């Protein structure tokens, strides 16, 4: 995942664990993760967005 998405190691681990756990919605303040396609996670959203 890290190489395919150009992620920092910590971000890749965080997203991989979330996908493995079956997380539907990944919330973050990290703008670098927005718009990334991660298998197993429907989408990555910013805490600044109104997602509810």
Any key phrases for this structure?
alpha+beta; 52 residues; globular
Folded structure, characterized:
With 52 residues, the protein is α+β, with helices and mostly antiparallel strands. It has one domain. Helix content is 33%, strand content 15%. It has 2 helices and 2 strands. The chain has a two-stranded parallel ribbon. It is globular and about 25 Å long. The mean pLDDT is 78.
* Through-space gap between termini: 28 Å
The biggest sheet amounts to: 2 strands, parallel
**Total beta-strand segments:** 2
- The 3D shape can be described as globular
Mean pLDDT: 78
User: How are the strands of the largest sheet arranged?
Assistant: 1-2
Gyration radius (Cα, Å) is: 10 Å
Number of helices: 2
Total of domains? 1
How much helical structure, as a percent, in the residues? 25-40%
Show unreliable segments.
none
SSE-based structural type = alpha+beta
The fraction of residues assigned to DSSP E strands is: 15-25%
- SSE topology string: HHEE
